[in-house]
Design a protein that fits this description.
The complex is a heterodimer of chains A (118) and B (116). With 118 residues, chain A is an all-beta fold. Helices cover 0% and strands 49% of the residues of chain A. Chain A is built from no helices and 12 strands. The termini of chain A are far apart. Helix content of chain B is 0%, strand content 48%. Chain B starts with a strand and ends with a strand. Classes of the chains: A mainly beta (118), B mainly beta (116). Chains A and B meet through strand 5, strand 6, strand 10 and strand 11 of A and strand 5, strand 9 and strand 10 of B.
């Protein structure tokens, strides 16, 4: 079963507007972390934001915020005041911890292409 | 600022040739990952190391791929022989020691492999 689902087609947003990128996940592990990465055309994976399964508040990092709805198993990324440089692929990823406490792999979704229009 | 180093950044080879990629994780990071990313898709794990031990290599095509992390620091990923379908970005990543669930996973710049 797919653990991370990103189903939106390519997204378009006007510069300076906000945009929400959807991500749903599936896990039975009570301890997990959710990550969002940005990948521009250069190929590097840039960490944006992290949300732990036990965190009480939604994570925020500058213009990025994570709308974490645990019961719905969703972790949507909100980008406020979009900039032209935000045009890139965005990946949602999850890492389960497991009973041993060892870090497991990051499992990625298929990604969403975001294009910011001037 | 600490970074994950990878080399080479780009590699062009012919099918049936051998290729090798190198990764140096952030100092002190016990967990090292090799991911493969086909254009337009999300990265998929090839192998995960905890120190020098392989934790997960279930998706590594072992007939042609090998990976090692002999001293638990830097790592090498090898493909022999390379096939056309191996053309992809190969990403190395590292993360904090065991138990730090919120530990960030840091990625290197990747090696873009083209097999002709």
């Amino acid at each position: 079963a797919q653990k991370i689902t990103q189903t939106q087609p390519g997204m378009f947003v006007q510069e300076k507007e906000a945009v929400t990128l959807d991500c749903t996940y599936d896990t039975s592990d009570p301890s997990y972390g959710l990550f969002w990465y940005k990948q521009p055309s250069s190929g590097e994976m840039i960490f944006l934001i992290y949300q732990g399964s036990y965190d009480q508040q939604n994570a925020t990092e500058g213009r990025y915020s994570l709308n974490f709805q645990k019961a719905r198993k969703s972790a949507n990324l909100v980008i406020s005041a979009s900039q032209l440089g935000d045009s890139a692929m965005y990946f949602c990823a999850m890492r389960e911890i497991g009973e041993t406490g060892a870090n497991s792999k990051l499992t990625f979704g298929k990604g969403i292409t975001l294009s910011v229009r001037p | 600022e600490a970074e994950v180093a990878q080399s080479p950044r780009y590699k062009i080879t012919e099918k049936s040739q051998a290729v090798a990629f190198w990764c140096d994780p952030i100092s002190g990071h016990a967990t090292l990952y090799w991911y493969r990313q086909i254009l337009g898709q999300g990265p998929e794990l090839l192998v995960q190391f905890q120190d020098e031990s392989v934790v997960d290599d279930s998706q590594l095509p072992k007939d042609r791929f090998s990976a090692e992390r002999l001293k638990g620091v830097d790592s090498t990923l090898k493909i022999q022989p390379a096939e056309l379908g191996d053309s992809a970005m190969y990403l190395c990543a590292s993360s904090a020691p065991r138990g730090l669930a919120g530990g960030q996973v840091f990625f290197g710049p990747g090696t873009r492999l083209t097999v002709l």
